[in-house]
Amino acid sequence: MEFDLIDAIRARVNIARDDVVLGVGDDAALTRLAPGRQLVACADTLVAGVHFPLDTAPEDLGWKSLAVNLSDLAAMGAAAAWALLALTLPRADVRFVESFADGFAALARVHEVALVGGDTTQGSLSITVTALGMVPAGEALTRGGARVGDGVFVTGTLGDAGGALHQLQNHATPASTLLARLNRPEPRLAEGMALRGIANACIDVSDGLLADLGHVCAASSVGAELDAEALPLSPALTAAFDPATCRELALTGGDDYELCFTAPVSRETEIAAKLEPAGCRATRIGRIVAGAGMRVLDAHGNEIEMTRAGWEHFSR
Ligand code: ADP
Ligand code: MG
Question: pTM, whole model, 2 decimals?
């Protein structure tokens, strides 16, 4: 029974890489690491009802469970290479697994990620993906390198996924572009690699910009100021919510999977040129300052008070 499920996954996620010496089928996988590279490894778990609504389509779950991990590799400036999939299922539902595997494969194919192993067990629905990638030795982007005077940048737009989730929770129908941002996030791998040697610090925005930039500030022993007017918002978001809600979603909504990075402002033109082939713009949204913590400023440079209640309003 379990082997039917593994075979179904294997048949659908059949991305071949010549650096896979031994993939699914043995006790563990063997892969070749290119000379001069470091292994970059991360894992993320999605629990039904906690990290995704129970009625999420299995294809979307397959995509997203890989996407959230590739996003962590992207934030390190790594190239994705291999993944492991630990699936816990209430029952041996072959159709669920097939659809899940199709969604997983669709994203794995885009980034040439080979599925080299995993585990399949019975229990409450939960998905753990381990993603493995490579980075030239010593060139990984980390949270700890932000410097006073750096600009704070973010790729793409913020708040779309949070907006879609907010609408779903209020029994409204999100625009298809917003829903796609929630269910099919696009990990910014090309962007992360392009930022090697430029960004001083980088993180992916998974828990909301303020929370994640807060991790960068803490790891770098600096503070940050953000310009509320500069936050990049999609037309779909501004069409669906009033300006204050858009701002709150952009600052605190989760599941964006954009990259937030800091870099010298003098390199802004270079950043734009490097990111252009990846097809994703970066916007400068603030600056790194001495001290600790974050402040959000309005167009006149006055601080906007963000109440904790306001933040928790959208927390999951
Ligand atoms: P073991 O008892 O050695 O853990 P399993 O029966 O769990 O072996 O798995 C058999 C093979 O199938 C292993 O190579 C394992 O990595 C792979 N595998 C199991 N579940 C999955 C899955 N969900 N996705 C990909 N590979 C899997
Ligand atoms: Mg096992």
Answer: 0.95
